[in-house]
Design a protein that fits this description.
Length: 172
C-alpha cells in the first residue's frame, strides 16, 4: 500500500490529490486546490509551503509526485511556476518525503493515452480511473493525474525488475 500525493503547482492555484496505490489498483483518498490570495510572491510561496506541509502531516503519504515546469511563451510565468514547485518540493523534502517529477506530456500519456490531451480529457479520465461520482476541479484533476502517472510508472518499474529479459521493447 502506498499513499501518493500528486501536486499540480501554480503560484495562484496549486492542485493536490492523494491516491492509495495497492498493486495495480488505485483508489481516491482526497483532492483539492490551494487557492493563494493576491499577495507578493514570497508570501504566496509561504502559503504553498505551509499548505503542502499541512497536507503531508494530515494524510502521511509515502511519496510525492509533481509536474515539471514547461517553458511557455511567458518566461516570467514559468519562473513563478518554478518557484511554486520549489516551495512544494521543499515542504516534502523537509518532511523526508521522496519526490518524483514528471513532464506534463508524460502525465497525459499515462492517464489519457496521448500526450496532447486537453484538461477536460484529463478530468474525464481521472474521474473514470478513480471511479469518482463527478469530475474533480481542473487543478485537482491534474494533481490526481500526476499521482496516477507515478503509480503507473512505479508499477511498470516493478514489472521490469521482475522480468527475466527485455527484447525489442517487450518484457519477456
Amino acid at each position: 500500500m502506498a499513499l501518493i500525493l500528486g501536486i499540480d503547482p501554480g503560484s495562484r492555484k496549486t492542485g493536490f490529490g492523494i491516491i492509495n496505490a495497492v498493486g495495480r489498483k488505485t483508489e481516491y483518498v482526497t483532492s483539492g486546490v490551494i487557492r493563494v490570495p493576491e499577495l507578493e510572491l514570497p508570501e504566496r510561496l509561504k502559503i504553498i509551503f505551509d499548505s503542502v506541509t499541512q497536507i503531508i502531516q494530515q494524510y502521511c503519504p509515502q511519496e510525492m509526485a509533481i509536474e515539471q515546469v514547461f517553458m511557455a511563451k511567458n518566461a516570467s510565468s514559468a519562473l513563478k511556476l518554478g518557484q511554486a514547485r520549489g516551495a512544494a518540493i521543499v515542504a516534502a523534502v523537509a518532511l523526508a518525503l521522496p519526490v518524483s517529477e514528471y513532464e506534463a506530456r508524460k502525465v497525459k500519456q499515462s492517464v489519457v493515452g496521448h500526450g496532447a490531451a486537453d484538461k477536460t480529457q484529463v478530468q474525464h479520465m481521472v474521474k473514470t480511473l478513480l471511479q469518482l461520482p463527478a469530475e474533480p476541479q481542473e487543478d485537482a484533476a491534474d494533481a490526481l493525474a500526476v499521482a496516477l502517472c507515478h503509480a503507473n510508472t512505479q508499477q511498470h518499474l516493478i514489472k521490469l525488475a521482475g522480468s527475466s529479459s527485455f527484447r525489442r521493447g517487450r518484457v519477456v
